[in-house]
Design goal:
This protein is of the alpha/beta class. It is about 35% helix and about 20% strand. The strands form five sheets. Strands 4-3-5-14-6 form a five-stranded mixed beta sheet, with helices on one face. Strands 12-7-13 form a three-stranded antiparallel beta sheet. A two-stranded antiparallel sheet has the order 1-2. The chain is elongated, with a radius of gyration of 23 Å. The model has no long low-confidence stretch (mean pLDDT about 90).
Length: about 300
């Protein structure tokens, strides 16, 4: 096994914190992954990973080698394609993450165009509402909807999703149509939290120069954007969600917008990626493409 292949295996093991998961993702035997890392450690004369029965963790030297290896493999990738012309020169694995709703509504319907333009790219698309660890899980970039927490990642703001309030016709027939904040006292909210067990903030509304939250009753809490919309369609309560995803349901008569003067704060949309010297061209191409795909559905950030 050549040193570059061994580096690629080490990087995947380090990011997934598991020889088994790394081997599965690369399509190689677990023994090959273990031997590759042992070979690297013998060549370098230092231990790169702490191994226990429960977890694999980088040593201090392993962390330093990981960061330099990522840069080196990026440089090699760029070097191999620098004299190639045309769209088909972009090749290699591309691992990205985004919410299930964004993937289903906007990205997947147009993804064939990107794959046709770049047939040598192998795309791994994760669609989850969970906040993935970009570095440890080996993602090239992630699309985040909502406020960003402090991070060492580079953020590229794309715009914001306008939020509207909706309910199903059946729900409004049973409970009436709310028109003011006081009316919400007799209504149900479908609660959304990123982690079950967390407390829902309630109904968000403009409050002078900012936004505030009003606690509301609700019999169901979900942690998935698709389930959030489905619960509303089923008549289980009111929701506050991006207009871009709900408008087709409104046009079809499955949902009705309510309280248009009491909308939640627009949700920022950002692309995140690791702070590297040189971002691979395939990652740059994907980020440029997804920016173009989402732009018609976004409004400028305030």
């Amino acid at each position: 096994m050549n040193p570059l292949e061994a580096m690629q295996i080490f990087i995947r093991v380090a990011e997934l914190a598991s020889f088994t998961r790394a081997a599965d993702s690369l399509g190689i035997p677990k023994a090959s992954a273990s031997n590759a890392v042992q070979q690297l450690e013998a060549t370098l004369g230092t231990r790169l990973l702490h191994r226990t029965t429960r977890r694999v963790q980088m040593t201090h030297d392993g962390q330093a080698f990981y960061e330099r290896s990522k840069d080196l493999l990026t440089d090699v990738d760029e070097l191999q394609s620098m004299f190639q012309q045309g769209e088909q020169s972009l090749r290699g694995r591309l691992r990205v993450d985004m919410s299930g709703g964004v993937a289903r509504l906007f990205v997947l319907p147009q993804l064939a165009d990107f794959m046709q333009a770049h047939p040598l790219i192998e795309l791994e698309l994760s669609s989850t509402d969970r906040l993935v660890d970009l570095v440890r899980e080996g993602f090239d970039c992630v699309l985040r909807v909502g406020p960003l927490v402090d991070s060492s990642l580079v953020a590229r703001p794309l715009g914001a999703f306008r939020i509207i309030n909706c309910a199903s016709p059946a729900y409004l027939e049973r409970h009436g149509t709310p028109r003011t904040l006081d009316d919400l006292a007799t209504h149900q909210l479908v609660h959304y939290v990123s982690t079950l067990g967390a407390r829902s903030p309630g109904w968000e509304y403009p409050d002078g120069g900012g936004y505030a939250s009003l606690p509301m009753a609700g019999s169901i809490t979900v942690n998935n954007s698709d389930s959030y919309t489905a619960a509303c369609i089923a008549g289980l309560g009111l929701i506050q969600a991006p207009a871009a995803g709900l408008q087709p349901l409104i046009d079809a008569g499955r949902l009705v917008e309510v309280m248009p003067d009491c909308r939640a704060e627009p949700m920022p949309v950002s692309l995140l990626y690791a702070n590297r010297r040189n971002l691979p061209r395939r990652v740059q191409a994907f980020m440029a493409w997804i920016t173009q795909v989402l732009q018609p559905h976004l409004e400028p950030l305030a």
